[in-house]
Specification:
InterPro entries: Cyt_P450 (IPR001128), Cyt_P450_E_grp-I (IPR002401), Cyt_P450_sf (IPR036396). One of its GO terms (biological process) is sterol metabolic process. Helix 9 crosses helix 10. Strands 1-2-8-5-3 form a five-stranded mixed β-sheet, with helices on both faces. A three-stranded antiparallel β-sheet has the order 4-10-9. Strands 6-7 form a two-stranded antiparallel ribbon. It has one domain: Cytochrome p450. A hairpin with a 2-residue loop joins strand 1 and strand 2. With 423 residues, it is of the alpha+beta class. The chain binds protoporphyrin IX containing FE (HEM). Protoporphyrin IX containing FE (HEM) binds next to helix 5, helix 11, helix 12 and helix 16.
Length: 423
């Protein structure tokens, strides 16, 4: 009998310990990998740039069969790009990359988001206090729908934002958040599937080259167009994670509050227009450090496609193989003083491809690495710069970020009061 068959199942321990589960197991292990059982399957977990290259090699690890049903029914959607391998994956992925890697498209989305932020910030000033997480989710939902060609009236932005947040918030729990996530997904897939049908039969029109247009016309590896439901799933795979940047915005506000010296530097850069890109070199380094430091995606996983060996250790075919994202982004072997928040670590040295992996590793064109990473960095850079220029009070509130909760966030959502937008 193999060793992993004798191990107790760790699924409950993972649910109870959240982000700390895998890094703790890693710390306690003396070998090059952790062995466990998850969802009844023998499991190994790895970390480090070499492990990234090992896991993202499709001859080693396949994704399709690995994703649990509760994750597909909330976070990603059935039939999503996340669930594909080989040629089918590459053809679908190329569609995302064409939309999300173009500098012009990224600039368009950032322009819509910053305009929406400025309008919203003027309204925050009229209210006693606002929850930044919720406000950022609405700003991003309105901006990404407009940019993607999804018609959304102003009055609908709040419920759309709530549903898009719910799909992310409920994927890793068995409680009420999970059931909210499932119904949010059902509702939004039906909404977007009817938009795709209307675009296809000519009863609705969307801008040429927009996300809806490109997904509705996309031809998959089998030579067929996507059915309307799968097209809706993939449009959601642009809308949902863009809105999820609100998690990072709340974390950015947390960092500015906790370490105010960064606010001064960001504001100075934003005021003088120094630097480059969407907010300047310091703002971009700050965005990378927020993505490294704060907990968001805990790990990614797939199934071993063959009997494998990792640094002399056997990994049996069919085993669940996890890449410890959160652990790697805090690994003292890769990061000096990993638990100190310090954007300067990215000032002189842009992140290495397989070192900083909050959105996966490897090459996004050939593997599953997030195609929205440039969009995320651009949005977070621009919004962090804006946040640094906004004056506000931070009233008494619960700012703890519970590591047991996946995905986590400041418990209060980061409340700001007495907002004074820049003049
Ligand atoms: C909010 C910040 C974000 C985080 C933390 C994040 C994280 C991730 C992670 C960990 C993966 C999986 C990588 C893997 O399986 O190897 C992923 C995949 C993906 N992300 Fe993101 N992402 C974010 C933003 C975005 C944005 C803004 C978009 C699109 C506009 C996006 C679209 C996608 C898609 C389509 C995939 C599937 C790629 C594939 O399977 O090939 N993400 N993301």
């Amino acid at each position: 009998m193999s060793l992993s068959r004798l191990l107790p199942d760790s699924t409950l321990s993972l649910l109870a310990r959240g982000y700390a589960w895998l890094p703790d197991r890693m710390r306690r292990t003396t070998g090059p990998l952790v062995r466990a059982r998850l969802l009844g399957k023998p499991t190994v977990a790895l970390r480090g740039p070499e492990a990234v290259r090992f896991v993202y090699d499709e001859r080693h690890v396949r994704r399709g069969p690995a994703l649990p049903e509760p994750v597909k029914s909330t976070l990603f959607g059935h039939g999503a790009v996340h669930t594909l391998d080989g040629e089918a994956h590459r053809v679908r992925k190329a569609m995302f990359l064409s939309l999300l890697k173009s500098p012009q498209n990224i600039a368009g989305l950032v322009g819509d988001a910053t305009a929406a932020w400025d309008e919203a910030a003027a309204r925050w000033a009229e209210r006693e206090r606002v929850v930044l997480f919720d406000e950022a989710s609405r700003v991003l939902a309105g901006a990404v729908c407009r940019w993607a060609g999804v018609p959304l009236k102003e009055a609908e932005a709040e419920s759309a934002a709530r549903d898009l947040v719910a799909m992310v918030d409920g994927f890793a729990t068995l409680g009420p958040r999970h059931w909210r996530a499932r119904s949010a997904r059902r509702r939004r897939e039906a909404w977007l599937a009817s938009l795709v049908e209307a675009v296809r039969d000519g009863s609705a029109s969307v801008p040429e080259g927009s996300v809806v247009d490109v997904v509705a016309r996309h031809v998959d590896a089998d030579g067929e167009r996507l059915d309307a439901r799968t097209a809706a799933v993939e449009i959601l795979n642009v809308l949902r994670p863009t809105v999820a940047v609100c998690w990072f915005v709340a974390f950015a506000a947390h960092a500015l509050h906790r370490w105010p010296e960064h606010r001064a530097r960001l504001a100075e850069e934003a005021r003088t227009g120094a630097g480059h890109g969407f907010g300047g070199a310091y703002a971009e380094a700050f965005a990378h450090e927020v993505r490294r430091f704060y907990p968001f995606a805990p790990f990614i996983g797939g199934l071993a496609a063959a009997d494998l060996t990792w640094r002399g250790e056997p990994v049996p075919r069919g085993a669940l193989v996890l890449l410890d994202i959160h652990g790697q982004d805090h690994d003292p072997a890769l990061w000096e003083d990993p638990y100190s928040f310090d954007p300067r670590r990215f000032l002189d040295r842009p992140p290495e491809r397989d070192e900083l992996i909050p959105q996966g590793g490897g090459d996004p064109a050939t593997g599953h690495r997030c195609p929205g990473e440039d969009v995320t960095v651009a949005l977070l850079t621009a919004l962090s710069a804006r946040l640094s220029l906004l004056e506000y009070d931070v009233p008494e509130q619960d700012l703890r970020i519970p590591l047991r909760r996946i995905p986590s966030r400041p418990r209060s959502g980061f409340v700001v009061a007495n907002v004074r937008p820049p003049g």
